[in-house]
Amino acid sequence: MGEVLAMKFRTGLAFAAVVGAVVGCGSTDDRKNFSPVRDVIARVLQERQAGQKPTTPGPYLLMTRLVNGSVTALTPFEVDGAVTTWASNSGAQLITRDGLLIATRGFGADLMSAGAPSLAALIGGGADYARSYHMLDGNDTPERLSFNCTTSAGAAQGVAGASRRVTEACQGEAGRITNEYWVSPSGKLVKSKQFVSQMGGYFEILALQN
Amino acid sequence: MRYLSGRGLQVAAALGMAVLGPGSPACAEMRPTLGFFGGTGLIDMPSGESQSDGVLSLTTAHFGPVSRNTLAFQILPRLSGSFRYTGIRDFNPGERTYYDRSFDLRYQLLRESRYLPAVTIGFQDIIGTGLLSGEYIAATKTFGGRVKVTAGLGWGRLASNNPIGAPFGVRPAIDFGVGGTLRLGQWFKGDVAPFAGIEWQVSDKLGLKAEYSSDAYAEEAGIRKIFERKSPFNFGLEYQYNRTLRLGAYYLYGSELGVSAQFVLDPRRRGSGGVLGAGPAPLLDRPLRAANAKAWSSQWVTEPNAAPGLRDALQTRLRADGIVIEAIEVTAGRVQLRIRNPRFDNGPQAIGRTARAMAAVLPASVEVFEIVPVVDGLAISKVVLRRTDLETLETAAGQDALIRERAQILPVAGGLPEGAVRGAGLYPKFTWGIGPYTKQAYFDPDNPLRIDVGVAFTGRYEISPGLVLSGTVTKKIIGNLDQSTRVSNSVLPHVRSDTVEYDREGNPAIDELTLAWFTKPAPNLYGRVTTGYLERMYGGVSAELLWKRTDRPYAFGVEINYVKQRDFNQLLGFRDYSIVTGHVSGYYNFNNGFLAQIDIGRYLAGDIGATLSIDREFANGWKIGAFATLTDVPFATFGEGSFDKGIRVEIPVTWLSGNVTRRSYANTVRPIQRDGGQRLSVGGRLYDTVREYHATRLDAEWGRFWR
């Protein structure tokens, strides 16, 4: 191939669009607004540490992604019966039913939906039951993980406000997961470590009541 | 890295985000690695393995005088193809570097099982000059999850060292003419020679390779003596930096040091997992009818300002998601909302967000939501949802499939329903933007990559629904595109090959300035008429008609254009050349993500023929494809390459960053740009616009409905 011609493409504008995402400007306003949650949570934590009565009514969640240690604070965004949608400063969400995680949004490797037991059934123990986790893979295609689970109860180890710990061990084709729940004497979740997705790992959730 | 190809640099730059993004740990399993030829393999020899389905890889490998840059794609679970740009220094005395392009295909005959190895048959350099051409069968077996042993037989180039016989007869000599055609007659003919190798993944990060090569480098080392080949043994050490990037250092042929970088991108894996960004507003339930009969009254519909009032309340809710209301039609039990989606790369996500806003705002008596996506004034389809289903399924396990079973995707008329109210302040409307741009030129032997960087100004004036005046002006700031001295030697009318002149003289350039009219004369029929400066080389009139049903995977279209070639300076003037060009097109969307398109008609140089394009499209917007055009221009008249062909890659920015946007990084690479088989490049072609909101595509993307 001796003689060769240079060639050009019309990709310039596409590439410009990519870069423009960072440095371009235009007439279209594309901003979003969210209520700042973090300040409120920080104050509540400070007050708790100082042993004071919180000045802002709760509840709040303090969530740690165990895969990378990042911490997110969340406040109730919408309550619909037992289902609460918790939102963070940036608009990421946890959706819980009686404290049990049934969905997440905005964390990337999200839990889209879940077939989960009720908190009462979980605490009550007893027979094995089925659990399902529904997520999207990197190609936005639905994936489902199914498990058979069994629970066992034990003493709460130094978690303030909790009287016992319930361990939920689940076995499925994808492997084994273990969720842990620290329950108060009145039967509410104080703290938990719950599975989200294969890539998202576990979330540790601390419920901050007043 | 002086010889890294343009494609390489550019893709590498785009991938920078993926590579350096959130750290995804290297996984423990022993992945199939890539060799110097860019296919799955050892160092200079191939292996029997293949990459995971859909994986796109870029390998840049260098040793002694040889540099190879290869883009490879695992087209199907067993079939892969690659395009390579090779540079050999001092190949011809007096010539700085000899450049060569080549295509490979490989097919995995056997998957590895407990007792049997993975076996692959490969065809190297099938349509180029044949410098690298060779065939092989390679078998690879894994032992203990850490060690892989490969053995194979090579023909052609891969039989140039210690052949053991010629079982299928003499290999005929190469007569590549102007190149670009298959050499079936050579396959598996001539000498055959064995090769072998071993790969040991010492730890998750570190891998070692050793091989016995059957390539004698007869031309490079033997005849031209541009390096010394002292030994058939090669050794390498590779470091897995992260899931995307693997780096290697090698000692080859007893005399040369080598380096390589392998970029492996799996469209099915995203650095962020799924998309990031704010979650949706929770879906609000209606009060129980028994408990609050008043809320369920349909009296509201008789109020004079019901429709505009609801429209404004909905628009307030939808603003956070960038969704714009094009029109609203209200009845007591059903509301149709026509929307534009300028932000979400995923149609179902935009539709899901719209449904949530409707549930939050609309009176309880409204049970049926009709959501009509509108693009360029064209109503594309009607997604019908029952509000009760949304309320019931919001927290249900497997909710995406459940809502899809209950939703309908229906055809929609182009005109507004009677009594519909338009969105506020939409027409006329002017929007503008300023941003950087780059233009690249590849494969000029004097300089394989040239780049211009500058500023692009865009303006868009929407006069009425479907009538848009828009333009782009670019001004170069810095670059070397104008330094090319290549002059077209094409004997056809220079319909594309004068690119150098356009690059040199167009500064500033009006890239396009058009008035476009989009219309929908019937529920399955879409039309477009565009006039003005349609693209950088042509101006004129372009008209298109597309027939497509919402629920069918096929479509038909016809396009006719009268165009005149623009002046090289890309301002307002024209050159002498004008032509009527147009095509009849057939489209088919296979269920497995493959798209096929055939265009038959008259091309810019007046040649008559057909183009076949095949693309593989992923649900997340990744698209990788190839195309080829055969026309009545004889190969010898066409010139180098024989006919027009190329590959194209589109990577959505959402996949790279995790943040939702409709932008994507798209590139088309032709081994050579000539004048035969060239189509007009007019913006706003209908098929891609329309199919985005038709059933096949919405179904593929549906998982994000509740996102």
Brief account:
Chain A has helices at 12-23, 38-49, 119-124; strands at 7-8, 25-26, 60-65, 71-80, 83-88, 93-97, 100-105, 111-115, 129-136, 142-155, 164-172, 175-183, 189-197, 201-208.
**Biggest sheet descriptor of chain A:** 12 strands, antiparallel
Spatial extent as radius of gyration of chain A: 22 Å
Which residues of chain B sit in consecutive blocks of at least 5 with pLDDT less than 50? Answer: 1-28
Strand order of the biggest β-sheet of chain B: 20-21-22-23-24-25-26-27-28-29-30-31-32
Oligomer: heterodimer
- Mass-distribution shape of chain A: globular
What composes the largest sheet of chain B?
13 strands, antiparallel
Strand elements of chain B, count: 32
Q: Largest interface by residue count? A: A-B, 69 and 98 residues
Helix and strand arrangement:
The complex is a heterodimer of chains A (210) and B (707).
Chain A: E1 7-8, H1 12-23, E2 25-26, H2 38-49, E3 60-65, E4 71-80, E5 83-88, E6 93-97, E7 100-105, E8 111-115, H3 119-124, E9 129-136, E10 142-155, E11 164-172, E12 175-183, E13 189-197, E14 201-208
Antiparallel strand pairs in A: 3-4, 3-14, 4-5, 5-6, 6-7, 8-9, 9-10, 10-11, 11-12, 12-13, 13-14
Chain B: H1 6-20, E1 56-63, E2 66-74, E3 79-89, E4 97-110, E5 118-124, E6 134-143, E7 147-155, E8 192-201, E9 206-212, H2 218-223, E10 233-240, E11 245-252, E12 256-265, H3 306-318, E13 324-330, E14 334-340, H4 347-361, E15 368-375, E16 378-379, E17 382-386, H5 387-393, H6 399-406, E18 408-410, E19 421-422, E20 429-444, E21 447-464, E22 467-479, H7 499-505, E23 509-522, E24 525-533, E25 538-548, E26 554-566, E27 574-589, E28 594-602, E29 608-617, E30 623-631, H8 635-638, E31 644-652, H9 653-657, E32 664-669, H10 686-691, H11 695-701
Parallel strand pairs in B: 14-15
Antiparallel strand pairs in B: 1-2, 1-12, 2-3, 3-4, 4-5, 5-6, 6-7, 7-8, 8-9, 9-10, 10-11, 11-12, 13-14, 13-19, 15-16, 15-17, 17-18, 20-21, 21-22, 22-23, 23-24, 24-25, 25-26, 26-27, 27-28, 28-29, 29-30, 30-31, 31-32
